[in-house]
Amino acid sequence: MARPPSPKLVGRLVRVLVCTEHKSFVTRELPEARLTFEGIEGDRHAGHTRPADVRTPWYPKGTPIRNTRQLSLVSSEELALVADALGVPKVLASWLGANLELEGVPRLTQLPPGTRLFFPEGATLAVEGENEPCVGPGKVIEAHYPEHAKLASRFVKAAWERRGLVAWVDRAGIIREGDEVRVMLPKPVTYVLP
Q1: Distance (Å, rounded) from C-alpha 98 to C-alpha 156?
Q2: Average pLDDT value over all residues in the chain
Q3: Which among 67, 1, 25, 16 has a CA at the least distance from the CA of 181?
Q4: pTM: predicted TM-score of the whole model, two decimal places
C-alpha cells in the first residue's frame, strides 16, 4: 500500500520558470507548465538523457546517461539567506537558472534523494539531490550588483547547502504558480557494510 505524503510537510509553488536558450541558463517566469517525462516542455534541461559531466566522473565525459537533473528547485527562504550572506538586497530564482521556486518547505536543500513532491493536478517530482553551487550563477548575480566585489566567487560559499535541489519528473501533469506542494520523505534506510 502506498504511503500518502506527510500532511505536515506542505509548501507552495511561488514561481514556475523556464529557459529555452541553450547559451544561457537564466530562466523566465511562466504562470504554468506542462511536465512530461522529459521535464518542462521546451526547457533547455528537458530530455530523457543528458551527457555525463564533472558530476558523473565514473563515465567518460559526454556519455549519454539518464537525466535526473530535469528540473532545478530553489526555496524563497534560502534565496533570502544567500542574499544576506552576500550582502545584497535580493537573489532571484531566475538568476540561478531555477525552474521552480518554493516557499514553506524548511531546509529545502536538505531534503534527501528519493523525496517526492506532489502537485494538485497529479504531477510528481522525484528529488535526485542537492544542486551544488558553482560560479556560473554567481556571475549573473555579480552582473546585477557590480558595486559588490567578487560576488561570483563568494556565491559558492554563500549558497552551500542553500542552492536547492535537482529532480526528475516521476509523474507527468500541469503545475501552476500558487499550487500547494506536498512533500513525502523516503523511507529511512540503514545499510551496514559487511
Answers
A1: 16
A2: 92
A3: 16
A4: 0.90
